[in-house]
Amino acid sequence: NRPGGYGTNSVWDSATNRLWVGVSGGLYQYDPVADTYTLTLARGVGSTAVNIAIDEIGRKLYRVGGGQTRLIDLSQLTDLAVLTSGDISTIEPVTAPGLFFDGGRLVGYGKSADGTQGAIHTFDPATGIWTRHTPPDGVFPPAPIRQGVWKRFFAWNGKYYVINAGNQDVWTCMPPSGGGVPPPLPGPILHQM
To answer: Are 148 and 95 in contact (CB under 8 A)?
Structure first.
């Protein structure tokens, strides 16, 4: 029973060994062993304008894009708007920004202050503040393409990588201070659905 809909977003949850899949018809959890989908939230989560990332320890799923930051509390399955401040004008309106959770904060790939180049943004869940970072070497990556960066922004081996488009160079940087080393994960979290 495969979910239908448009604007599919997904993120792997290593705490449960499941894939969270958001489509216009709701949020599903995919079990690759049983090859089954379970509807967990009957509210449209998918969109061609947003991307999702997971905080496995805090059990939160963040959605950014389309002009807002939202979170789904996975322990209660509630979808909430997040009141944000800071440098929101260069990350929240970006179509499907690159997004992942790292070192206790959400990390996004949005635009520079003038909108002509790319920039790393971090979101502190405790304060609700987005911060846009200037590269340490002053060299900005290209602006996110209008179709979205999606999962082509990621952390690997202590660095952040951006593959903005197939016809552009891969851009790498060190994480802004305070990130880059994810906290250790606890043992498996048993979660009844």
So the answer is: yes
Walk along the chain (193 residues) and give the pLDDT tens digit of each residue: 778 776 788 999 999 999 999 887 888 999 999 999 999 988 766 677 888 999 999 999 998 988 888 888 999 888 887 878 888 898 988 888 999 999 899 999 999 999 999 999 999 998 999 999 988 777 888 999 988 888 889 998 888 899 988 888 898 888 887 544 333 333 333 223 2
Buried b (16+ CB within 10 A) or exposed e, 10-46: bbebebbebebbbbbbbbbbbeeeeeebeebbeebbb
